[in-house]
Amino acid sequence: MRRISARNQRIVLPGLVLAVICLMSVLIGGCAGPKRTPPVETEPLPDFAPVVGTPTLLGVGLLENEKSLEISVNGPALVLDGHGGNRLARLDGPGTVVCTRSGGQVTWRVGSQKGTTGTLVLQPVDPGHRVLQGKSAYRGGFLVIPTPGGSGLTLVNNLDLESYLRGVVPWEIGRHGRDKFTALEAQAVAARTYTISHLGTRKSRGFDVYASVQDQVYKGSADEDPLCNSAVESTAGLVLRFENEEIEAYYSACCGGVSSNIEEVWARGGRPYLISRPDSPGEGKEAYCATSRHFDWRESWTAGRLEEIMQKTLPEYVDYITQPGRSEWAGPVFSPRDGSSSASRPGRLRNLEILDRTTSGRVARLAVTTDAGVYHVRGDRVRWVLKPSSGNPFILRSALFEVELVRDGERLVEVATRGRGYGHGIGLCQTGALAMAERGKSVREILSHYYPGSTLDRVGR
Ligand SMILES: [Zn+2]
């Protein structure tokens, strides 16, 4: 993913849409606009003070390529042309807008009024009201655009960063008691930093971030958690920086006792603050995340079932890893058995062997031998190749595992993996952070443990 520094951050919304939102903000008190990050100063924690200033606006992609969209609002609202800012309709109270695609445009209907526009904005007049889609409610407003490269419509939730985080933190780290509050604060800072460093990376799709694990899970305003909201408020505007840029604040559920060097698990360059370290209070001490139910796990397949899974996952891996920017990192991918062998038809599974491990002990290179030849599966992608039989979880929990093979003579009968942790293990370990909070560690101590060398800074004044 491309890095965008906060100084150069651009909001993905078309300028005129922003102008409309800004105009709406003026109408409802106070102009919002795309934030240009001012010079920052390092500010020690825990000297928190909420940031006062213009908010960072972002677009969260909720739905793509929908044939029609039914969007609602629970109070007075304006329906606007997203490009020109012209008012198309006014709702004096709760109401619904139905949108369909017509050529490259959005056709809309509100009660007896209807029309066609390039893009459509639905914005409550009072920010206390919510826009609604399906069973979900959202702060801010909606933007409806024709799906780029598709034939349907894309629904984007436009809102400010701090409001967005209220719909992210409880879904990413869970709901916890006050004894774990500093972990919620650490999660809020990590999610805020991640968001700022990814603004603009989904620009071609018409928004900034997905509302799912592709970026961060976001479920709107209906089920916010009061303590998570407090953590967002008490850290408002605080982000992690390294050499004056927001860091790539990755996080995962459980590191299994040791975090990853990013460049060893993903086809990415190294980052001094995303390095392999023990997730424990000191040498020989039990890992902070040892109490996680994902700390130890086992996943097994009959050879036949894994063979069936790999008919799909091995060719998918070859397609994925031979893309530009990945193939150099991956090295040799497939050695055919003979001239008639094809990487797209693996055939019978014969052997699995771990050839290399990363600094943290994760699988760096797995050789999978089939009738077609030998596939060399690199880094975290082993999790996509060894998909659990049940489909739950969708991919193998982690790359920190051993392989056990059961054979009947030469024939492979069963394959098992015995591993630790859940997720890529890069950056903050969520279960470790919760344990650190429970032991009285401050948010600063938690963040400097998981992102060593980064500093807490403030954006937006
Ligand atoms: Zn951990």
Structural commentary:
This protein has 461 residues and is an alpha+beta fold. The protein has two domains: 233 residues, no CATH class; 123 residues, no CATH class. It contains eleven helices and 25 strands. The N terminus is likely disordered. The site of zinc ion has 8 residues, from loops.
Q: Provide the residue-averaged pLDDT.
A: 89
In which range does the helix fraction lie?
10-25%
The strand count comes to 25
Largest sheet: 7 strands, mixed
| Large-scale geometry | globular
Tally of separate helices: 11
Instruction: Tell me the structural class.
Output: alpha+beta
| Regions with little confidence, pLDDT below 50 for 5+ residues | 1-52
Which keywords apply here?
single chain; 461 residues; alpha+beta; 2 domains; seven-stranded mixed beta sheet; 30% strand; globular; disordered N terminus; binds zinc ion
Please outline what is shown here.
This protein is α+β, with helices and mostly antiparallel strands and 461 residues long. The chain is built from eleven helices and 25 strands.
Show the helix and strand layout.
Layout: H1 15-27, E1 57-66, E2 68-73, E3 77-81, E4 87-91, E5 95-102, E6 105-110, E7 113-117, E8 120-124, E9 131-133, E10 136-138, E11 141-146, E12 153-160, H2 161-166, H3 169-173, H4 181-198, E13 209-210, H5 226-234, E14 238-242, E15 245-246, E16 251-252, H6 262-265, E17 297-302, H7 303-321, H8 327-330, E18 334-336, E19 349-357, E20 363-370, E21 373-378, H9 382-385, E22 401-408, E23 411-419, E24 428-429, H10 430-438, H11 443-450, E25 455-458
Parallel strand pairs: 1-13, 16-24
Antiparallel strand pairs: 1-12, 2-5, 2-9, 3-4, 3-8, 5-6, 6-7, 8-11, 9-10, 11-12, 14-15, 14-25, 17-23, 18-21, 19-20, 20-21, 22-23
Zinc ion is lined by residues 254-255, 279, 287-289, 429, 432.
